[in-house]
Amino acid sequence: MTALKKLTLTEPELVLALQSKDPAVLKTLYSMYSSALYGVISRIISHTELAEDVLQETFVKIWQSAAHYDHTKGRLFTWMMNIARNLSIDKLRSKDFKNSLKNQDIENNVSFVDEQNKVTFNPDVLGVKQLVENLKPDLQAVLNLVYYKGYTHVEAAEKLDLPLGTVKTRIRLAIIELRRSFN
Amino acid sequence: MSVENLKAYIESGVLELYVLGDLSPEEALQVEEIASQYPEVRDEIAAIEQAMEQYAMQNAVEPSADVETKLFEKLGIRDEDELGTISTTPIYSDSEEPKIVRLDSSDGKIRTLRFALVACVALLIISTAALFITYNKLNDAHDQIASLNLDKQKFAGVVSQLEYENKGLDNMVAMADSKEWVTIRMAGQAFSPNAKMNVYWNKKDKSVIINYVAMDLPKTDAEHEYQLWALVNGKPVSLGVFGKSDSTTNEALQKMQAIQEAQAFAVTIEPKGGSINPTMEKLTVMGGV
Predict the structure, then answer these.
(1) Do residue A149 and residue A83 come from a single domain?
(2) At A29, is the secondary structure helix, strand, or coil?
(3) Which residues numbered 36-75 in A keep a CB inside 8 Å of some CB on B?
(4) CATH code where residue A170 lies
(5) Can you give the pLDDT at residue B250?
(6) B125, HSE (Cβ side, Cα atoms, 13 Å)
């Protein structure tokens, strides 16, 4: 019990509690990962309300399909992040999202636009942004599309008019840059 | 897979796409298969995952607080405090408790019903006993009413008898006071020495009246009745028949046939309807004027 009340757990503990449907673990999971997942979601969906909806849907799906997670196939966060990315991309392509863009009230437009362009300064993130900005432009373009815009590598290849292999290689190189910077 | 092929596979970027979830299920399955065989691939995937995770952590954005509230509301998960208290108590006790309460309440209901049944049976027995007692009392009452009715009839009979006699006596008194009426007392004869009877004869209009109250004649049977005679110059003349002395006809007085003159009156017992000549053996009373 006291272990569950802590806000961080080791991954095997989290997985075990999650798969035994312990409600307490979802609280822990949320406090540990909601902002990281919201970071992923909000970079794909800039509309705050919709992004928050997706965050909620993400945790609902994590809770409901916890049994499907197989730790031998990868880390828990990778699994959760992919749920968040897939739900975000689905939302981005849904009627819901397109309608919400069309139906902005003119009265609310100022605050909406403000919201869209909100700049928050997260000291932890500053270095990373800089790092991503310091990537070579061709690597940055690919990473932007794939990571921030939710493009598949196939779509990114079409968008950038590049061969698939090149896109793949550039994604790899960008991630290697990240890995290097974290180590 | 040779070492070179393995290196080429790792460098192809497919593992990054795998981590990003950007592969078809078949391709992903293939990656997993290779990863299970080659630790190098496994390590590479782990490194990519770690990098992506750290990257996401460093790009974290805090969502608004009400997302969490709404999420746990939607999933029906309560506050952490409550979760704590629930988890410290065994789960089964939580689900068992209402069961006990439910059983208890149904037990109580059955007990109440049992009491009600006992009460009903007791009430039924009491009612039956009360009904039986009442029935007996009613029977007693019926018997009493019947006997009272009998008494009443008896008294009514006595009263009417008394009235009848009273009337007769009134008449006798009236006749005795009157100068017009002559009372002839007839005394018992050989056939019935204890018998006696009066005859009233009006000197003015010569009518003859007998009074049932003023007679004591021997009893007759159903085929016989009394016949009154007047002796006129030694000859019997019938003045009519009359019934039993104890008959309860309404009138105490009975008018007989009038006779102009007579020396004596007599009564005989004759067959019903009367006879032309008196049966002398059954001469009951006789008296001279």
Answers:
(1) no
(2) helix
(3) 36-40, 42-43, 48, 51-52, 55-56, 59-60, 63, 72-75
(4) 1.10.10.10
(5) 58
(6) 5
